[in-house]
Each structure stands twice: as C-alpha cells, then as structure tokens.
C-alpha cells in the first residue's frame, strides 16, 4: 500500500503470463533438484510454474517479508526492501529472522536492486512494490530472467478499478499455501494456516458489533479501507463492522462527510511508526467536523500497526487485540 498503483486487469494478466517464474534460479540447481519440481501454483488467476526452489528471493515491504519469515525461509532470501522500520520489529516473533536476512534498501524496490541482489524471485504486490507507473512489474522482471510472485491481497480483476479476487484472510492462506509449494515447505505452511484459523475461530462472537472506521492518513480527505482490503475482514472477525464496507474498493479515499454520516463508534489508526499514531490521534480529536462523531466524542481510538492491517502473519494477533478492545464498547 505504500505505493498506490492503478492498472488495468489486462496488463496484470499479461504480466503474470510472462512473469518469468519458469526461469531457473541462479542458485545451485543440482542441490535443489527433487521430485517436487516443477511445481505450478495459481497466482492472481494465472498459473505460474517453478522449475526449482528459489534460492535468492527478494521481498518488498514488511508484511510480505514476514510471510517468508513465518515459514522459516530467510535462508532462501537474498534480502528484503522496506522502510526504516527496523526499530519496530524488535518485539515480533521474527526479530531473529530480520537479523539473519539482508536489508537491501529502505527506499522503493527497483529492478536495479533485484539485479544487484542476483534475485531469482521477487515477492511483491500491486500497492506493495509492483507499479506500472514506475515500470517495476512482473513483466519487466521476466525480461530480466527474474521470476515473480504477486501478493494475493493485491490481485485485481474486473475492468479499471482495483479489486480483490478473494477475501483478505483467504488471500493470506492462499499465499502461505503457495509459498509452501514453491519452496517445498508445505507441511510448515499447513501447520501455520491451521494455527491461524484456530486462533481466529477462538475469538468470541460479540453481542454488539460497533461501527469501525479505519483511518490511514489524509486531512483534506481520509484514506481508508473499503471492502476489498485486509482491514475489512480483520474488523469483521474482531467483532466490528467496517463503516466503509459498502465501498467497492480496497485502499481508497473517501470524504469526511461520509465518515460523519456513518458515525463510527471506534476509529482504528493505521500506525506507520512514532510519532505517526499520536499525530493522527491529535488531528482526529481536534478536527471540527468530527467533534460530534461517537468515536471522537467518547475517545474510542485504537491503534494497530501498519503490518497488522495488510496481509501478513500478524493478522490473527491483530484480530484478537481488536476484538478485546471492541468488547469494551457498549451498545448504543
């Protein structure tokens, strides 16, 4: 989501068809040869085939990187690209993986970074690295002999606007299963998926579903989540109701008038790091049009990390934490 790309589905299909996944990786192919390969997975509606286990994967952004770490695949990575969030990952389960893997850049991922890392696979997504505006696409990487895997949360279908092709949590489970096949660690992936599903299923059904507004950024107009981005299902599984769930889009801009009209009982801040959340809280509480909104009037503002609110292995913990908070909200 840190880069906000917009592209037609036809271009996506073309990019995936020639995504370069059939190019053998640059590692020791003989060492990785097994009866498991070649392996084919469906990614964003297209079948992609991997002849061997990738040996020098490059990931873009924190959630995508942690999907690899959660599967214990840091030894198959040439490195990761993400902003200067290193100080914010010291408490996560994968902090040791961050130390073992190479931080390639805090800036936007580029083909030069992929080439310098001798990548054989780039794992990124539309909104999360792939961007037709900059020319960094699976199609471009294919021309360089580099394979690609597209984050399922970011897949697009239909004409024109971006659309998710599956629910956000199904996207998480799909990517874990696909990565399990691609890297021949399907047992690990299956255990992780089962654990995540069990943790989410254990969240109690609420007596009351408070309306929740996801605030990402923006003062003139707020940037938020419609029904196709991960917060929609995170909020729902936590026992809330996304007040922008009727917006047929993923991450998108709306008007403050629509927020006031929907009168959310809780606002969830998408935190990109100190002092980001505190500055956003201060703005929300001092912005005159929101003064009468229930969440502001009752000071019900909850903070989740950026990596909690995009597809990542942090999603189950985020759902549990938000559920605990929402159960404190009384029915109107």
From TrEMBL:
<keyword id="KW-0732">Signal</keyword>
<dbReference type="Pfam" id="PF01497">
    <property type="entry name" value="Peripla_BP_2"/>
</dbReference>
<feature type="domain" description="Fe/B12 periplasmic-binding">
    <location>
        <begin position="56"/>
        <end position="332"/>
    </location>
</feature>
<protein>
    <submittedName>
        <fullName>ABC transporter substrate-binding protein</fullName>
    </submittedName>
</protein>
<feature type="signal peptide">
    <location>
        <begin position="1"/>
        <end position="20"/>
    </location>
</feature>
<dbReference type="InterPro" id="IPR050902">
    <property type="entry name" value="ABC_Transporter_SBP"/>
</dbReference>
<comment type="similarity">
    <text>Belongs to the bacterial solute-binding protein 8 family.</text>
</comment>
<dbReference type="InterPro" id="IPR002491">
    <property type="entry name" value="ABC_transptr_periplasmic_BD"/>
</dbReference>
């Amino acid at each position: 989501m840190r880069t906000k790309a917009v592209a037609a589905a036809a271009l996506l299909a073309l990019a995936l068809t020639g995504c370069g996944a059939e190019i053998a990786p640059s590692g020791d192919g003989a060492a990785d040869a097994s009866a498991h390969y070649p392996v084919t997975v469906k990614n964003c509606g297209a079948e992609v085939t991997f002849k061997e286990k990738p040996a020098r994967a490059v990931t873009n952004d924190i959630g995508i990187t942690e999907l690899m770490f959660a599967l214990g695949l840091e030894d198959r990575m040439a490195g990761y690209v993400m902003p200067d969030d290193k100080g914010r990952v010291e408490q996560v389960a994968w902090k040791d993986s961050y130390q073992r893997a190479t931080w390639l850049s805090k800036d936007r991922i580029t083909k030069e970074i992929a080439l310098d890392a001798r990548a054989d696979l780039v794992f990124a997504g539309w909104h999360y690295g792939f961007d037709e505006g900059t020319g960094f696409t699976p199609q471009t990487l294919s021309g360089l002999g580099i394979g690609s895997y597209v984050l399922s949360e970011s897949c697009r279908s239909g004409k024109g606007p971006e659309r998710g092709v599956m629910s956000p949590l199904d996207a998480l489970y799909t990517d874990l299963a696909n990565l399990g096949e691609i890297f021949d660690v399907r047992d690990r992936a299956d255990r992780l998926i089962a654990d995540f599903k069990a943790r989410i299923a254990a969240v109690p059904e609420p007596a009351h579903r408070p309306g929740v507004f996801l605030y990402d950024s923006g003062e003139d107009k707020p940037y938020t989540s419609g029904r196709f981005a991960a917060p929609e299902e995170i909020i729902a599984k936590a026992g809330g109701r996304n007040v922008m769930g009727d917006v047929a889009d993923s991450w998108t801009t709306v008007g403050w008038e629509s927020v006031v009209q929907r009168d959310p009982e809780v606002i969830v801040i998408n935190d990109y790091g100190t002092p980001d959340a505190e500055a956003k809280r201060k703005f929300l509480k001092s912005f005159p049009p929101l003064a009468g909104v229930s969440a502001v009037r009752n000071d019900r503002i909850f903070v989740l990390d950026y990596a909690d609110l995009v597809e990542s292995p942090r999603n189950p913990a985020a759902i549990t934490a938000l559920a605990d908070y929402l159960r404190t909200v009384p029915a109107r």
